[in-house]
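Researcher: Next entry in the queue.
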Amino acid sequence: MIQNFLNVCKKMKVIPAIDLMNGQVVRLYKGDPNQKTVYSDDPISIAKKWQDAGADMIHLVDLDATLGLGSNLELIKKLFHLYPFLLKLQVDYVLNH
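Model: Structure for this entry, 97 residues:
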């Protein structure tokens, strides 16, 4: 049973995520924008850390766009310019606009 689990894990791909709100890297508690934890004011350095750790893809979420509160489009463009590997990525901003 453990060997089957390990075989499945070898086939899984873990994709790190960066959730953006007001230009910051955040996590929302139960999806509530009023209950957020800010992890960084520098999403560009966070993307670099993920890349340096071996990530070849990042799931990027524009929470402002998703919640209808604005967008982080300029920041997303900058991330794409600096880290072309992000081009493989699903961007929730694009999916919702």
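Model: The helical segments are 2-11, 43-52, 63-66, 73-82, 92-95.
Researcher: Noted, moving on.
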